[in-house]
Structure formats: structure tokens, C-alpha cells
Fold this sequence. Notes:
Layout: E1 4-10, H1 20-33, E2 37-40, H2 50-62, E3 67-69, H3 81-86, E4 103-105, E5 108-112, H4 132-143, E6 150-154, H5 173-182, E7 187-190, E8 197-203, E9 206-212, E10 226-233, E11 238-244, H6 250-253
Parallel strand pairs: 1-2, 2-3, 5-6, 6-7, 7-9
Antiparallel strand pairs: 1-10, 4-5, 8-9, 10-11
Amino acid sequence: MADSTLLFHLSDIHFGLEHNRALDWVAAEVAARKPAAVLITGDLTMRARSREFAAARDWILSLAAPVTVEVGNHDLPYFNLYERFFDPYAKFRGMESVVEKELDLPGIAVIPLKTAVRMQPRLNWSKGWVSRRALDKCLAALDALPAGKRAIVTVHHPLVEVGTRGTAMTHGGTRALAELAKRGVLAVLSGHVHDPFDLMRETANGPIRMIGAGTLSQRIRSTPQSFNELTFDSDGRLCVEARNLQDVPTEAMKIDDVPEDARPPREPGEPIAPVGAVPRTDPPVH
């Protein structure tokens, strides 16, 4: 195999509140550096609107590299509850080939694990949830890998808390992380909290590495817009560098919360206000 495999890890692009300079920068880096794959760990959109998905689809499919995309909590329908419950991935049409896609790369495989669900028995549906079915699917894919093949698992929500301002509160995450550690997963890549991190966590089955990407949107927390550059070498080491737009003052890029006038107008057919468990005001955004 090649001496090293270069991967780009992006997250939380949030089309609808995207940062165009950051997107142009990342697309140029992909074209120039030619990574083996681009791994996007969810929240492509801000409100799961058709026009946001169209912009996300056009940008993602224009990248000059293989791509896999996780589904984030912001990518599930927010206003249309019927669609949320019965056809939650309808607006991914046109890029189905990259959604939750397993990748077989030189020396390493990328396996998805879904953490965003259409509903859960608590009020805040923005938080993570690992279902038994989703975990079993991920573990089956890991168990099917040939001997000696290392694996990275991609999720949207960190499986356990990582000390960032944003929280994941992922139900079933501790159990899932232990199962991944048992199988020798090289790292679990996530987004959601909008700040990069790289740390080891102990589990009942030993330690496992957790790597988080920041955001490419205007919704930054503690750090500028960024993405992770991962290098997997022939000795089985995974090196991570968080790349960001350091030359732009943080305060010039930051939106602390979504102002009322930043909310785009309703699309035709959308209700004036959602009903049921989804709140009318902006839910916590991570």
C-alpha cells in the first residue's frame, strides 16, 4: 500500500448558515491535496430545507474525492412532521450514493454508525441516540472486515461527552463505544459540538480514540471554522491536524445564536409552526 493515506474530516456545514469563504477554502484544499476520501460527520443543513439540501448536494458532489456523509440531527425535517416520521431522508435524494457509505481505502475502512434519530423519548431530539439496530449494523460491518484491516467509525454525535461547550448526551453511547473498543477500532470520528478535539476515552473493553471536527458554518463556538486532516501511515498510526481559518478574527465570524431575521421564509406548504414535540423556537444547535 502507499506510505500514507490522507483523509479530510469535515462536519456541521449547516447550509443555510454556511460560511462561503470556509467552503471555498476546503474545496480548494481537496482539489490541491487530493485526499483518499472526505468524511463528513453530519449536519449538512440548518433546517433541512429543500434549498439547503440542494446547495449541500451541489457542493458535496463537486468535491474531487470519494465522500461519505453521516446524517445529523439538523438534517431531519424540522417543520414537516409527517416527512420526519415517515420519509426522513427524502431530501437526501440525488446524493444517496454517499450517505452512510462504507469506504474501503488502502489499509483502512470507514464504517458509519447512525446517531441521529427521527424521534426519542425525551424532549430534546437534537441529542444523540444509538439504537440497537444501528449498532448491530455497524458491528456486523466491522466483524466482516478482513484480518488486519483497521477501521474508523463515523458518527454525528460524540458517543460520550468530551468536555466541549456543546453536549451530545448520546443515549447508548457508552455501550457503543465499548463495543467499538472491543473490536480495535482505530478512532471514532464525530461532529455536532462545533469544536475540534482528539482524545482517548477508557471503556469497559479498553481505551479508544475519539476525534471531533469543528464547523464550516457561521455557528462557531470556541474555535474558527475548521476541518481535520488525518494521515494514516503504513505503521498503523493515525495523525490528526485541525486546520482552521486562523487569519480571520474569531469575533468577525461568530454568531452566538440564530437571530430571528436569519430564519429563511417558509417554503410552500410548510406549516406556520410545527406541532408535537418539535419546539417552535430554535432548538439547541450544535
